[in-house]
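Milestone M4 deliverable, item 7.
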Amino acid sequence: MTWLGKGERRGSLRWRLLAAVCIAVLLIWLLTGALSYHMARHEAEELLDGSLAQTGHLLLALLEGSDDEFAGLGGRLASVRAADNIYEPPLEFQVDQGDGAVIARSLDAPELPILGVLGYSDIIRHDESWRVLNLASEDGRFRVQVSQPSGLRDRAALEVAGQTVLPLMFIVPLLFLFIYLSIRRGLLPLDRLASEVAARTPDNLAPLSGREVPTEARPLVNSINRLFARVSRTLDHERRFTADAAHELRTPLAALKVQSQVALRSTDAPMREKALRQIAGGVDRAARLLEQLLRLARLDPVQQLDNPGPVDLAAVIHEALAAARAACAEADRPIAAPLPRGKAMVQGDAELLGMALRNLLDNALRYSAPGDAIRIGLDARDGEIAVAVRDSGPGVSAEVLDKLGERFFRAPGARAEGSGLGLAIVKRIAELHGARLVLGNHPDGGFVARIEGLKGQLIAPG
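Output delivered:
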């Protein structure tokens, strides 16, 4: 048995159960003992009254003899006295004839008139309580009075009742011990579960076994296993982010170091200026890569949107279009956005949807030819809204199309430099909104990236 401190004992399930069950058993024992005592004492009183009646009827039977026998009966009865034993309390008696003349009495019998009411009665005689029974023969010739001191009767009844309750006093401690052992045995699976968790290493996030766990504790085990799964996914995301960042930043940082060394050692001003411009471009690329890595690191652990709400997708498209034009030097090319009138209301996160659209527009601007037009479309059908960004370039090959959206994949011969994370970010945002990213070549030419399955509807202007 493990001894716990007072504070630990209050918080222990074992001690709470033990205290609750023992208190309930103790209360039931007290109630049972009180009822048993009361009933046993009542039965003892009934038995003692029966003894009075039996003695009285026996005396009347003895008095029904002949006159010759009656002559010596008084002396014989006067010498009769019950044994002084708690289980045989003495019976006092007196016998008289119908005229009231006493013919026999025991030595300690109370001097009471026998001509009173027949039956049982309780009297006080010389400051002592007595239980009295008056009987008469059928012909009325004789009357018998049998009595017992109430104190002796109470002692006898108390002894009988006490002997009835006494076994319970020995049973209850054994019952308490049995309850403790039962509770301790019943909680052993929880102890083993706690030991299993305590013995685990920090990197062991395998699910706990719930075979021996009681039904009441299985929700706890299931919750712990779900927590382990979430922590495992979080650690996997962190490890992947660390590996991705280390792998992808290694090249631009090495290039920056080389260009900085060239700028430091170069004595030719044009060459130094070129190296510095390359350093500035490398810093921009590293900053963009780091920003996208941080975005993915923030989105990967998320299982669902925290507080999705109504979002006007048309307004988000306009904001993303303005941001893309402001950020890209080549954004003066023609961009068509023939959006329907009114509002395109969807359930989601406006910031994430804006991020996805900015990535699609940025990709279209960076990877298409300078003269290619860009078109943004929006349509609704069957309670779902889709938004698409399309350029008018040559499109991509089937081999490249199958790999687009994978992290760090860049099409061979791409015009602009990038990290290969933009479409991966858009794909993750679409998944969080219960939608999907569909990539392909448009039948009329050009490449199109389409987010489909956003829940919402078009609302005509009022």
